[in-house]
Amino acid sequence: MIIKECKDSFDSCVQRVKERIVKAGSVIFAEIDHSKNAKEVGMELEPTKVLIFGNPRVGTILMREKREISYELPLRLVIWESSGRVQIGYRKPSHVAQEYGLNNEILKKMDEFMENITSV
Predict the structure, then answer these.
(1) pLDDT per position as a tens digit, 64-91
(2) Looking at the record's lineage, which domain of life comes first (predicted)?
């Protein structure tokens, strides 16, 4: 997993990443708030969110080549705060695709996309 530090507050980091995802032409399909879910069952967890997003025009190309990759799509990343530090984590799409024997040129663009949206 690639882990980057975000200098912003947790909420600001989440907002900036979401804005970058949408600006790049992708759709945010889901936002999972693990700390909220933990609170609902009487447990505590520092702020932790998973964003699930993608562009069907891109993902479909890979799924048409190897349907099993659909298990890994849409793309996702995690943003969390621990001891006052905000971090972003994700798996490089090209590395995930290698597990499925894919080596499509579009994966390089997906890697660049992930690098760009997480550089906040």
Answers:
(1) 999 999 999 999 999 999 999 999 999 9
(2) Archaea
Residue 104: per-residue pLDDT: 87
User: Do residues 29 and 118 touch, judged by C-beta distance below 8 A?
Assistant: no
**CB-based contacts of 5: which residues, under 8 Å, 6+ apart?**
85, 86, 87, 88
CATH code for residues 2-118: 3.30.310.70
CA distances from 103 to 59, 95, 100 (A): 14, 9, 9
Can you give the residue ranges of every domain in the chain?
A: 2-118
Residues 13 and 109: their CA atoms lie apart, in Å, by: 23
Q: Please tell me whether residue 46 adopts helix, strand or coil conformation.
A: coil
